[in-house]
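[job 4471] stage=fold_predict status=RUNNING
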Amino acid sequence: MTVRPPAVAGMFYESRPDRLERDVRGFLAVDASPADAIGVIAPHAGYVYSGAVAGAAYARVRVPATCVILCPNHTGRGAPASVEPSEAWRTPLGDVRVDRAMADRLRALAPSLTEDAEAHRREHSLEVQLPFLQVLRPDVSIVPVCLGDPSLALCREVGEAVARLRAESREPPLVVASSDMNHYESRAVGRRKDDLALARVGNLDPEGLFRTVLTEDISMCGFLPATALLFAARAAKAKEAKVVARADSGDQTGDASSVVGYAGVVVS
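[job 4471] inference complete, writing structure tokens
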């Protein structure tokens, strides 16, 4: 079996299984009842910075048998839009199976997606989502997708393909868009920019999010996955995209002069 090994265990999150599970369960311990959802936007920084925000989103959704995880490409390596070809992804909590049949169907529905391992090899933004899903549903499987081409047409293609995939499935997959918000500006500037992007998310407006991020110079690293999620949500006739938690790195460092923002969003 081909397995994608962890790239950032011991850096972004604990490498010891007992400590990792303890941390994740702590982040998920919020006063919320899980419900069916179309998708979530969850951050992907080190857990000390963004774990609580991610946990606030995940605690509010029921995790189905399969999750389609859309992540950005921070490294610039590999194909511009790809599905990772391994049979499983490994974390300290064990292996997460890749639903190869669903992955193949998604590639058939979205021909711009190719099979490529290189884009995923050192990419942290999908990997850090997995322990949350494993704790909530130990038998979860995934479809790992990396989007690196800043194309609205690509986001539409992938999002609408994911929506069709959900419509065809007896148990529709949860769509996870991995994204942090604005990077390395003051808290005041970052908050203002994040407000602009999240307003478009709240309006379920993929074109508006894509346009706003580019015209307002918002360094939201996962805006392509988030835009694709919004296209999927529109096709699925979503009613709401609710921001359930926000924070920034300055909450931990004590430095508000240069922060990275985080937001957890549930789309239903």
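[job 4471] summary: Residues 3-267 form a domain with the Protocatechuate 4,5-dioxygenase; Chain B fold (CATH 3.40.830.10).
[job 4471] exit 0
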